[in-house]
Amino acid sequence: MQNFRQFEAGPDPFGRKFQVWFKWLQTAISIRGSDSVDVQFLLENDQAGSFKKTIALPHADLLALSRSTGRPMDDPWCARLAALHLVHVVETGEDMEKDLVTVAPDALKLYAAELARQESAVA
């Protein structure tokens, strides 16, 4: 995913597609005392309305992943990892009822591999 700032996610289990807008990325220690990077998106759909979803990326997991892949940990990478997880949440309905969703380490590894594949395809 190259454009994490605005994209379409879905369909969800009910066949709905959502327009998604990146809102912000922030170190969560400053906003909620969590050692994570929080990425917030606004989702909008005619039937479901609009709502916010925050994806939490645990900092220790990001550091380990950055070290193991050799990929520097920067804001665009974190935002794209979060966007891929948001797409997963929408498409599966898993954790869709939550405002704050924390990404598991194994899922982060899958998303990092997908981003690396996408980046190598563009180059």
Task: Describe this structure as you would to a colleague.
The chain has helices spanning 29-32, 59-69, 75-92, 105-122; strands at 6-9, 18-27, 36-45, 49-58, 100-102. The protein is α+β, with helices and mostly antiparallel strands. It has one domain (6-118). It has a five-stranded mixed β-sheet with strand order 1-2-3-4-5. A hairpin with an 8-residue loop joins strand 1 and strand 2. Helix 3 crosses helix 4. The longest helix has 18 residues, at 75-92. The two termini are 14 Å apart. The mean pLDDT is 92.
- Percent helix, as a range, is 40-55%
| Count of all domains | 1
C-alpha Rg (nearest Å):
14 Å
Low-confidence stretches: none
**Number of E-state strands:** 5
Tertiary shape: globular
Regarding quaternary structure, how should these chains be classified?
single chain
What structural class is derived from the secondary structure elements?
Answer: alpha+beta
Q: What's the mean pLDDT score?
A: 92
Going across the biggest sheet, name each strand in turn.
1-2-3-4-5
Total DSSP helices: 4
Order of helices and strands: EEHEEHHEH
> CA-to-CA gap between the ends?
14 Å
Q: Give a quick account of the main beta sheet: strands, pairing sense, barrel closure.
A: 5 strands, mixed
Strand content: 25-35%
How would the blueprint of this fold be written?
Elements: E1 6-9, E2 18-27, H1 29-32, E3 36-45, E4 49-58, H2 59-69, H3 75-92, E5 100-102, H4 105-122
Helix pairs in contact: 2-4, 3-4
What key attributes describe this structure?
single chain; 123 residues; alpha+beta; 5-stranded mixed sheet; 4 helices
